[in-house]
Batch of 3 targets.
Target 1
Amino acid sequence: MKSKRYKKLPINTKELKSDSIDKILSKIKNNCTAKFDESIDLSFRINNKQKKSEVSLRTVVNMPGGTGKTIKVAVVCEDNKIDEAKNANADLFGGDDLIEKIKNGDLNFDKLICTPSMMIKLSKLGKVLGPKGLMPNPKLGTVTNDIVKAINEAKAGQVEIRNDKDGNIGLSIGKKSFEDEKLIQNYNAIIDALDKEKSNLTIKGDLVKQVFVTSSMGVSYKIKMDKSL
């Protein structure tokens, strides 16, 4: 059953003509009538069904406007890098001891960073970390010797772009309380990241079919992109 609040929102917004993100944001914010600071979320439909294979996207993007979220970062590293992780404000850090905690199901973190030499041990925990999307990956910058950079980027607002089996990508560009400029910066960063990924793919036609934007408790609007991807 729809709430009284939801019934007051516009209807059939998906059928409206698409418009640019900067013009839609005011409508989205006006629809943010919940009592908390709603997220502004994007939903991409990509052209993942190809003749020879399905498109599988997985990359990260640094959000210049931030995410409004506090990210808890864990670092698995050698003993001589413990102080480095600690001084870079990692929330959890350790070597074999931290791996043992993770093995026992202690996953009290949002992002896991690992040095290459420790990855051999950590890779055995694929069944624990994989389903949660927490397994470090060199492509995502989470398997690295430069743990300070990785920690700083994770804390500053780095998000993962990954499509599901149906070709959908969902991610947030910030909160209602964000200035429009920051939300647009984050949106453009995501578009640029997808454009870069497309150049690395063998794909027929456009990568992105449609893009919608909504708030946590609102309704969605179709975005008109400035360029085809």
Note: The two ends are 38 Å apart (CA to CA).
Target 2
Amino acid sequence: MKLIDRLERHLGFLAIPNLTLFIVIGQAIGMFLGMSQHPLIDQWYLIGAQALQGEYHRLVMFIFLPPGFGILVMFALYLFLMMGTALENQWGRFRYTLYVLIAYFSTIAVAFILPEQVMTSAYIGGSVFLAFAWLYPEFELLLFFVLPVKIKYLAWITWAGYLLTLASGDATARLLVLSSILNFVLFFGVDIYHRIRWGHRTMKTTATRIKAKSQAFHRCAICGVTEKEDKKIDFRICSQCDGTLEYCENHLHNHEHRGSHAPVDEIEESS
């Protein structure tokens, strides 16, 4: 984020206040135009080939295309407004504006790479959703206004769909997915890397602790019994043997002493 801090010091004046509200108002207008089947809405879709022919308004107007034209789109616009406003409050105006602009320009880049592909603002809204889910994973949504679902589960489903597309989709679909997650990777890639490293270290430490707990602490040098096999049995270290050899209560006084501390008569007998 040091690069973003430097950019903010020099370009902070370019931040757009209430950017999400501005987009939502435009999409609400687009929704009503689409519901009324107004021919003007056809000029809002981003098609690279037509933009190259001079229809430059498409480079701007596509961001105001709503995710659909049904009545439920109002709920989608409300969620987008809520999530975008939360991100703006969390990051500040400049960082949120930069996040949206990266998605905006990556969408335009794909439109020029695939000039016949019809582009909308769907992936921009999707990237805002993924960022919000990353920062507020425990936030609950009422699915179909009834079923409470934590937003992280919806994000997992989204990521699963993206990974499936990257694995089995065609070149066009893969390019669209990559462009849609570019800003997310740029903003959260380092954080994800550190979380993965921390998770791996935690799993390794946990595995070591579990392994240590499963190993016996006391073991009889004669019969090999441990406290894992019999928790009531008592273990002692023999004072007449070298080292720290332990013996169970059955063999503490019934074993051959080892080392220089063994009694003389026992050493002579063994020799």
Note: The beta strands are 46-47, 118-119, 140-143, 147-150, 235-237, 246-248.
Target 3
Amino acid sequence: MAYTSAQKRQHIYELQTYLHALSLMDSDIPPVIPSGIYDPATIIAVRAFQRKYGLPDTGNTDAATWNRIVSVYRSSLSAAPLPYAVFPSAKYTAAQGDSGQLVYVIQAMLHDVGARYDNAPEVPVCGEFDDITAAAVRRFQQWSGIPQNGRVDSGTWNMLVHCCEHINQTLMN
């Protein structure tokens, strides 16, 4: 059976998907948007990958290049988890009225505390620092001996992180 153009596009799309993922982890690899077309952006990304990993700099995806791309991609998926610094700075304070990614993370941690301890309030994870979140922060601050202002500064953040790490370690044992 002949190699169809649809199969070729699928393989190019898969290559581009791997290169796109690798570009997120390594700024030396330029980003590629998967399209199934071996376009100039794909050639540039392949060449950058080849240079980085000591392969002939051709821009063509031969077997050695393909195998190395797949190997690097798969090893990145099985690597140890990376820490993610979501709290902006030691001087930052998250407070009622804020919204976004940081608030989601705070609420997720408060939710974990609530799931572990019966007397902890339920906190919906919605990304909006609302009255319920502020009350849960005050309650957590009370338990932790922190001034109860309902805002998350670096001290409250660190205590919350330690609490969640403790919860996770306890669950793993």
Note: The two ends are 54 Å apart (CA to CA).
